[in-house]
């Protein structure tokens, strides 16, 4: 393989999964500075990887290839969907890729690899097996030239590194080589949030998640919020759906000076999180965004395994609880106060 291979990363969704795939861009660029690195991602998550686009003296991702698969599936009988799909396929065919790295283990991602143009002898690397508590579709292996066996208990970041290192015949990148996510200049340059209503000292409570069992008890959020409110912080309850907004309003009504903000985008979330004194959240995408931005973050695990997504790369991240073992109020409060004292 040349020193300037053309590499395609395929990680379509969701928010947390995309974030935990970011370190392999840095791994690749450190060892193959002249490579072309493109990434296929669902259109709703493009903003997550835009900060890694190559610019000026920074070299990261060369091209982002948005995919509207979720939207196309909902409008399968509309010509506009098929027209967009054919345009997407044309983009995938415009470059001959030497290495394709698919770290999702799903059929939809494997099919994207199949649609891409490849050089003779190209490597298409993907997962050979499932990790516990992760989605996996064995049929995807039919589209790989190299199926990579990973440990059953494998952190999301480590799993992406296993596949990448196998694809390029590298020694495994260990945790001692701490993962990097976003350029430090990007994080330092995040603007003050334009979301109206935020005070100078606020703490984010990401209480919502797609699976009800992963939620922390409402009474715990209220008790924790009252503690922070008494210390002069504004407690903020973001939301992403009508039902989540109703819960946010229910919780905020029981805490002095608590705030339920208007809906904000992923793009807005960067600044909202960057300006917070602390983020406390369950195992969900926006909590993981706070962790990869290296902001003071308490990650609460109630019904998902901590080993799978815990922030292990910074002492500004505290991980509490575990699968079927949610933390009590004192554990979360203690972790929170420790991080606030470090700030």
Ordered list of secondary-structure elements with their pairings:
Elements: E1 6-10, H1 15-19, H2 23-31, E2 36-42, H3 46-49, E3 63-67, H4 69-74, H5 79-93, E4 97-102, H6 107-115, E5 118-127, E6 146-148, H7 156-167, H8 184-188, E7 202-206, H9 218-230, E8 234-236, H10 242-252, H11 266-274, E9 278-282, H12 285-292, E10 297-301, H13 306-309, E11 317-321, H14 329-342
Parallel strand pairs: 1-2, 1-4, 2-3, 4-5, 5-6, 7-8, 7-9, 9-10, 10-11
Helix pairs in contact: 2-7
Describe the structure.
The protein has helices spanning 15-19, 23-31, 46-49, 69-74, 79-93, 107-115, 156-167, 184-188, 218-230, 242-252, 266-274, 285-292, 306-309, 329-342; strands spanning 6-10, 36-42, 63-67, 97-102, 118-127, 146-148, 202-206, 234-236, 278-282, 297-301, 317-321. By secondary structure, it is α/β, with parallel strands linked by helices. The chain has two domains: 6-187, Rossmann fold (3-Layer(aba) Sandwich); 193-342, Glycogen Phosphorylase B (Rossmann fold, 3-Layer(aba) Sandwich). Helices cover 36% and strands 17% of the residues. α2 packs parallel to α7. It is globular.
Topology as H/E string?
Answer: EHHEHEHHEHEEHHEHEHHEHEHEH
Q: Portion of residues in helices?
A: 25-40%
Mean pLDDT: 96
Number of strands: 11
The DSSP helix count reads 14
- CATH architecture label name of the largest domain: 3-Layer(aba) Sandwich
What separation lies between the terminal Cα atoms? 46 Å
Number of domains: 2
Strand content range: 15-25%
> Structural class of the secondary elements?
alpha/beta
CATH superfamily assignment of the largest domain? Glycogen Phosphorylase B
Shape: globular
CA radius of gyration: 21 Å
Which stretches are low in confidence, meaning pLDDT under 50 for 5 or more residues running?
A: none
Major sheet size, sense and barrel closure = 6 strands, parallel
Query: Which fold name is given in CATH as the topology of the largest domain?
Result: Rossmann fold
Widest sheet: strand ordering:
3-2-1-4-5-6
- What is the C-level CATH assignment of the largest domain? Alpha Beta
